[in-house]
Specification:
By secondary structure, the chain is of the alpha+beta class. The chain contains 2 helices and 10 strands. The protein starts with a strand and ends in a 9-residue tail after the last strand.
Length: 121
């Protein structure tokens, strides 16, 4: 089975084709080794940085932008978002504050992507 990717490792954006034959993965279309590594990772263990929002109590806005501090297996992204929908941060929050530790046992922490002050009551 052939899989086609657009490489996101460098600005060239190579159109890469990867095919698994037995234990070997054959990659074509890449102009650098980073493209080959990217295609192999996409076939064997795709991961992504998770970006989403969580509710924040007493903030000037109802939602706080957050992201994972490391890549999460792609097959766990939807489950992590479901878990984060239950999280309520409390204002004030600083950029980089850990909002959720070790989300879904992935080893990744969810951190704030911006600061949020407490609203005046």
């Amino acid at each position: 089975m052939k899989s086609k990717f657009t490489c996101i490792e460098c600005p060239l954006g190579c159109a890469i084709t990867a095919e698994k034959k037995g234990d070997e993965i054959i990659v074509t279309g890449n102009k650098c080794n980073r493209g080959k590594d990217y295609a192999i990772r996409e076939l064997t263990d795709p991961k992504r940085i998770l970006t989403t929002t969580v509710f924040v109590e007493n903030g000037i806005h109802p939602l706080l932008p957050v992201k994972s501090d490391r890549e999460i297996p792609k097959n766990l992204i939807k489950k992590c978002i479901g878990e984060l929908s239950k999280v309520r941060a409390k204002a004030p929050v600083k950029y980089g504050d850990v909002i959720c530790k070790n989300v879904m046992g992935t080893g990744a922490n969810i951190v704030s992507s911006c600061s949020m002050v407490r609203k005046n009551e």
